[in-house]
Structures are given as structure tokens and as C-alpha cells.
Amino acid sequence: MHELRRALRRGSSMETLGLVPTMGALHEGHLSLVRAALEGCDRVAASIFVNPTQFAPGEDFAKYPRTFEADCALLEQAGVHYLFAPTTEEMYPPAAETFVDVPKIGSRLDGASRPGHFRGVTTVVSKLFHIVQPDRAYFGQKDAAQVAVLQAMVRDLNFDIELVVCPTRRDADGLALSSRNRYLSEAEREQALAIPQALCDAAESIGQGDSSSAIVRATLRHDLDAAGVRVDYTCVVDARSLEPVTEVRAGSLIAIAAFIGSTRLIDNFVVPIDEEVAE
Ligand code: AMP
Fold first, then answer.
1. Which residue among 31, 33, 147 has the greatest number of ligand 1 atoms within 8 angstroms of its CB, and so is best to mutate?
2. Residue 274 has what pLDDT?
3. Does residue 139 have its Cβ closer than 6 Å to ligand 1?
4. The predicted structure's pLDDT at residue 14
5. What pLDDT score does 243 carry?
6. Active centre residues (catalytic)
7. CB of 110 closer than 6 angstroms to any ligand 1 atom
8. What are the structural domains, with CATH classification, of the chain?
9. In a mutational test of the pocket of ligand 1, which residue from 71, 142, 146, 153 has the highest number of ligand atoms less than 8 Å from its CB?
10. What is the 3-state secondary structure (H, E, C) of 58-118?
11. Low-confidence ranges of the chain (pLDDT < 50)
12. In the chain, what percentage of residues exceed pLDDT 70?
């Protein structure tokens, strides 16, 4: 990758390089990032790496869906120029001991439920940034806490990389696309619709002028409880700092993590900056 990067820099055209980091098991959400990267950059690299350090013990690392051949075909079809798909040993040789940590923001939301998760994410993403050296890197809004943690990391460690955040892609019925949706039975898939429904109802109540976070969270809870969904968290936080806010305002992140059977799903929306939230 370093040689390739040097060659691209040597080229007289000064081509820009975009990076789309993924863990594979690709779906339309990943491909929307690829398309945004192809629009914004001359060359696009995707990476596929199921990163062991972001899975806590007992999580689904071993059974995480791996569909490498199909992923390659999708990326090629989409027009990606380069694929970086290292082995675990290449990314973490036995002597490796350096981690990157964003301790405060990284311990909120999914960081609270999955201790060590964001330390794994920031470590692997910094490694990918150093390896690929992209001008821009593309991430999905679906993982809103990940976006906040990576924005802090890029700021604090002075990465000369622009983070581009792309909207959440959904199935026609509203369920956010996720590689983990493959784990769901038909009945569970139906039950999972309570998550986007709860977010819709919360958005509606905000639109009607409810600006109290407690009321918004009660709406989320009510919908999820009614569907028999086991809630991990519901929260109303500042989208950048992930700190809880008592009043919903433009830029507030409304987020859910919930278990459908044994599958943990997340979803969220950010209150638009230009929207009048409260009277
Ligand atoms: P993953 O393979 O789950 O690590 O995801 C790789 C990238 O795709 C991350 O930046 C995710 O936020 C993004 N992503 C996952 N699902 C979606 C979705 N439904 N819409 C948009 N981006 C997504």
C-alpha cells in the first residue's frame, strides 16, 4: 500500500485517494460509501478486515459473517480501484503493543456497553490511515458514536484526512442495513422494525415541539418495550461529545442500541441543524 501511495503521489495528476473501511459482509450501506468516495476522489480503496480488537470477549467475532468472494465481486462491480484485505497476523503481529484510545468519548454509548470496543476501532482505523494514507475516509452515520470517536481522534492526532459521513441506508421498511441483520430470523426481523419506528415516533414528537430529552427517551422506551425488545440504551446526546443533553436541540443525536434475540442492533438520527425544534 505504501508503494502504491508513493506511486500515486509521484503521478503528475496529483490524484486524490478515498478510503472506505469495512469489515466485509457488504451491503448497500457499504456500497453507498463507495459511491460517495468515487464521486469525491480520483481513486478509491476499500478495506475488508474483521478487526478482533474491537470485539469484547464473548461477542460475535468468530461467527461474524465473512463473505469475501461476494464482497470482492461487489467492490469490483462498484468500481473500487484497490482492495486492502490484510490477515489478522499482518495487522497485529505478535510483538504489536501500541493502542490508540479516545478514553472519554470512547466510553460513551457503545463504548459503555462494549468496553474496549472503541479502543479497537481507533487503533485499527489509525493503522488503516497510516497504511493507506487516504485524503478522505468515508464512514456511515449509522455508527454515530464511532463517527464522534473518530472525529476526536483525527482532531487530536492531527491526521491530515477529511472524514466524510454518509447517511444511513435502510431497507424499504425502514430497518437500517447492517451485516448483523443476517443473524435475524423472519420473526426477529419483524420485531427489529420497532427500532426505526421508535426513532420515527421520537422525531415526530420533537417535530411537534417536545424538547425534553426525558420525554423523547420515554417515547423510545415505550415503543421498544411494547414490541418486547430488550433495550441496551436509548439516549439523547450531543452528536460530537456524546454527552447527554437535557433539552433536544439542533445537532442532538437520538440513538438506540437494542437486542433482537441475541443480535445487538443500533440506529439513530441527528436533529437537523436548520430545523426548529422547540418553541
Ligand atoms: P462495518 O463493516 O459494519 O464496520 O461498516 C463499515 C462502514 O459502513 C462503517 O462506516 C459503517 O458506519 C458503514 N455502514 C454500515 N451500515 C450502514 C448503513 N446502513 N448505511 C450507511 N453506512 C453504513
1. 33
2. 65
3. yes
4. 79
5. 98
6. 30
7. no
8. 2-166 (3.40.50.620), 179-270 (3.30.1300.10)
9. 142
10. CCCCCCCCCCHHHHHHHHHHHCCCEEECCCHHHHCCCCCCCCCCCCCHHHCCHHHHCCCHH
11. 275-279
12. 97
